[in-house]
Sequence to fold (334 residues):
Amino acid sequence: MNPGKAERERDGLTDSFGRRFRYLRLSITEVCNFRCIYCLPNGYGRDPQAQFLSLEEVRRLVAGFAGLGVTKVRLTGGEPSVRPDLPAILAATAEAPGITRVAMTTNGWRLGDRIDQWREAGLTHLNVSVDSLDRETFTWLTGHDRLPDILDGIDRAIDLDLGVKVNAVLLRDGFGTTIGTFAEWLRGRPTTVRFIELMRTLDNVDVFERQHLDGSAVRTWLTERGWTPEPRRPEDGPAVEYSHPDYLGRFGLIAPYAEHFCDGCNRLRVTARGKLRLCLFGEGGVELRDLLGESVDPGLLETRILDALPTKARGHSLMMAQSGDLRRMADVGG
Ligand code: SAM
Fold:
């Protein structure tokens, strides 16, 4: 039986393990214009069948999750900025009652030209993915010689006072140089560079085996140089952040292979095709799209989400080399 309105408001979205979800990661496209070696090394192969959520579907979906206590939405993909209606999607997300944080993860393509418009539309937080500050390495990793432009865009976003973070996938090759260069970059920048352990997907096994590096390499590098972990607050996500008195910026580490990583899971995901994905490394998903039409009672969407939540697994099985049915991150939205 579903809980009544009062109970829903009290408990919000809580799973069988007592984890509470106020954070939705919403993919708005599977299309990406980069060719990252661990995700889409051959580029996005167009799927003529693919119909991604429309602006109106996004509006209803976000309103539904907001009604269940979600306060933060992150738009992701694919590359969300390839959608021409992105400003309208940002605005629709920001307008949903109860949503206080509108975040987005982007590869930073033409960021400097667009960031003012996105902010005006309602964007409050921005993560930009940059795996290396070396121009040649960046070009090799992504297939695009775009690093200087992207870094200018990041500086513009910092000037606009958006909550800006940089995400870097932790790669074995050149790790010492990569982290050292990021440290210098952070000396005078009030932002956080978060290393994310490379995750195995069905399509990236070779790259994973060559490039995966355990997060302990980051921890060791930082602690040997006087960086110290920041105390964690209950609302913090999975990143452990490190600060240093001589640096304005911080480092973060997201280590999905670490024991108990999933205990702090605080997010739900919806794919660009409108499926609720309870775990990035799970299988399938719960169809929501049939409930996003104009004439559908919004209560049905809430009920389906609430009914699905008890089936959320305690954790993924990445340590056993099991990636669920995730072929590549761009399919679900990393
Ligand atoms: N296109 C956007 C971007 O580049 O930020 C958003 C989508 S992208 C899939 C989101 C993040 O997932 C990026 O930081 C990317 O580097 C990361 N990512 C992709 N595949 C990954 C993998 N196998 N392991 C860890 N991170 C991965």
Observations:
- Residues 32, 36, 38-39, 76-77, 79, 105-107, 129, 167, 169, 196, 198-199, 201, 204, 329-330, 334 surround S-adenosylmethionine (CB under 6 Å).
- The two ends are 33 Å apart (CA to CA).
